């Protein structure tokens, strides 16, 4: 038999109740679902889902990655804005 280890986590009663119900509806208990999450994380070498930033953070990252346009002077900037 495989040696087992205990993992303890803290979460809200509501989250535990809702997650337990969800997994029960899927035919799983909470422990099995958590083990599936851990196994999939190891297979993928990371989280088994896309971790997302807030909309503002994502837009800031995209903005910072965009090339910088140097207008030179006000008239050039007006031309750039007019042609966007």
UniProtKB/TrEMBL annotation:
InterPro entries documented for this protein: Arc_rbn_hlx_hlx, RelB/DinJ
Stored Pfam families: RelB
Keywords, sorted A to Z: Toxin-antitoxin system
Record keyword Cell membrane present: no
Domain of life: Bacteria
Family stated for the protein in its record: Belongs to the RelB/DinJ antitoxin family.
Protein's name according to its UniProt entry: Type II toxin-antitoxin system RelB/DinJ family antitoxin
């Amino acid at each position: 038999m495989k040696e087992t280890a205990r993992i303890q986590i803290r979460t809200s009663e509501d989250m535990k109740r809702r997650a337990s119900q969800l997994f029960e509806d899927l035919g799983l208990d909470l422990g099995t679902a958590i083990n599936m999450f851990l196994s999939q994380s190891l297979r993928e070498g990371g989280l088994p889902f896309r971790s997302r930033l807030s909309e503002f953070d994502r837009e800031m990252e995209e903005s910072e990655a965009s090339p910088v346009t140097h207008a030179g002077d006000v008239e050039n900037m007006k031309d750039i804005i007019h042609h966007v």
